[in-house]
């Protein structure tokens, strides 16, 4: 198989170069406009010849029968090097086929994208806008699928954001009005302890220090207990530490009359084997508490997805989104919330206790998404990149 890249000033000159070098049987795999001309990728002998070559290498035809007796095996050795050489040739052929498949898939995706742009230009514009705001492809396609077929260019910019606003699940209530036992769970570094302090401060303001208590289950991180104890001392509330499920159950029963009990858990990655032990402390008391997953807005969507799956055994009732002030964009985070239909209780955007924690409003989150700017400039999302981004997702119906 012979694949070659040609660059010329225009298509006519590119095709002439292809014919002169690869002949009239060359197949054009892709074309792309460049700043100084056009790029053409062409191939010859990419199908039948390649397969025959691979078959010939791996399954050679049997040699004609010989009248001479076979020589002893030690006189005609067949070494492992021969087998390894054939294996390497097969791997090389597989790699070539894989590269060709990727090129062809990209070409098909580009054609489909261009066809969608011809039939529904405003829908393509909406996908472009959502991509620039960091909305994940599957969520963007689902949103665009709900848009009217005859919308204007202005509507293509703002209607998808309105759909996001309507789809977000926001509790719209203050936990200080509910009280009870609340356990914050989440990965390391998402800000659970600081968030506990902010919530505790609001509970103290509303119910008084005597009605609030803090419990720590982090027995791994050096200084974790000291940090929680520091906040407890500042707020004038009791701080307890437990090491197993039995201790937690007994403590919660003793604190049944408290207005609020906040549990600060150890932060671990989804792959940490100790996570199972940490969840085992909470599991027997699930009927006594409400679990809230803490997600950091400045982390990648993949890490947020892993956290959601890792803590699913605890059945989090809602989430708190932290560190909005440290995130250049929250489009991917909003995509995660929409995908899992996870209710949002609070957002935090700063280190101040208790000021920097608020009950979110949908329009506030959308405004934050727009105000923070676009994660990708229009030049960074050309048609080829957008075609590749959406190639694995079905196009809007119609």
From TrEMBL:
One of its GO terms (cellular component) is plasma membrane. Its main location: membrane. GO terms for biological process: bacterial-type flagellum organization; protein transport; SRP-dependent cotranslational protein targeting to membrane. Residues 178-348 form the AAA+ ATPase domain. Signal peptide: none annotated. Residues 179-371 form the SRP54-type proteins GTP-binding domain. One of its GO terms (molecular function) is GTPase activity. Keywords: Bacterial flagellum biogenesis, Bacterial flagellum protein export, Cell membrane, Cell projection, Cilium, Flagellum, GTP-binding, Membrane, Nucleotide-binding, Protein transport, Transport. It is found in: Cell membrane. Residues 61-81 are annotated as: Disordered. Transmembrane segments: none annotated. InterPro entries: AAA+_ATPase, FlhF, FlhF__GTPase_dom, P-loop_NTPase, SRP54_GTPase_dom. It is a peripheral membrane protein. The keyword Nucleotide-binding applies. Necessary for flagellar biosynthesis. May be involved in translocation of the flagellum. NCBIfam families: FlhF (TIGR03499). This is Flagellar biosynthesis protein FlhF. It comes from Frateuria aurantia (strain ATCC 33424 / DSM 6220 / KCTC 2777 / LMG 1558 / NBRC 3245 / NCIMB 13370) (Acetobacter aurantius).
């Amino acid at each position: 198989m012979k694949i070659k890249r040609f660059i010329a000033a225009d298509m006519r000159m590119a095709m002439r170069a292809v014919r002169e070098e690869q002949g009239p049987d060359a197949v054009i795999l892709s074309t792309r406009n460049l700043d100084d001309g056009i790029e053409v990728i062409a191939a010859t002998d990419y199908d039948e010849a390649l397969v025959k070559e691979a078959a010939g290498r791996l399954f050679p035809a049997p040699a004609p029968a010989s009248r001479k007796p076979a020589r002893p095996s030690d006189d005609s050795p067949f070494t492992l090097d021969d087998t390894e050489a054939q294996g390497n040739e097969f791997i090389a052929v597989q790699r070539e086929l894989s590269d060709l498949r990727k090129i062809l898939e990209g070409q098909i995706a580009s054609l489909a994208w261009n066809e969608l742009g011809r039939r529904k230009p405003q829908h393509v514009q909406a996908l472009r806008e959502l991509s620039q705001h960091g909305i994940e492809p599957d969520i963007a396609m689902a949103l665009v699928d709900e848009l009217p077929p005859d919308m204007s260019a202005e509507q293509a910019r703002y209607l998808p954001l309105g759909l996001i606003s309507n789809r977000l699940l926001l509790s719209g209530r203050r936990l200080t009005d509910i009280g009870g036992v609340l356990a914050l769970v989440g990965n390391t570094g998402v800000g659970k302890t600081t968030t506990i302090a902010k919530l505790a401060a609001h509970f103290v303001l509303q119910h008084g220090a005597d009605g609030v208590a803090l419990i720590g289950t982090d027995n791994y991180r050096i200084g974790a207990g000291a940090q929680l104890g520091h906040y407890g001392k500042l707020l004038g509330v009791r701080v307890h530490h437990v090491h197993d499920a039995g201790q937690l159950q007994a403590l919660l029963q003793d604190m049944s009359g408290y207005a609020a009990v906040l549990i600060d858990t150890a932060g671990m990655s989804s792959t940490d084997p100790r996570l199972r032990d940490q969840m085992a402390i909470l599991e027997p008391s699930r009927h006594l508490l409400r679990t809230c997953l803490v997600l950091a807005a400045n982390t990648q969507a993949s890490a947020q997805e892993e956290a959601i799956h890792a803590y699913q055994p605890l059945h989090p009732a809602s989430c708190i989104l932290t560190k909005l002030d440290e995130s250049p964009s929250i489009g991917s985070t909003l995509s995660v919330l929409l995908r899992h239909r996870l209710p949002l209780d609070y957002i935090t955007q700063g280190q101040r206790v208790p000021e920097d924690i608020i009950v979110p409003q949908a329009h506030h989150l959308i405004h934050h998404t727009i105000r923070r700017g676009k994660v990708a400039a229009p030049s960074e999302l050309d048609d080829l990149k957008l075609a590749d981004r959406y190639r694995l997702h079905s196009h809007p119906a119609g």
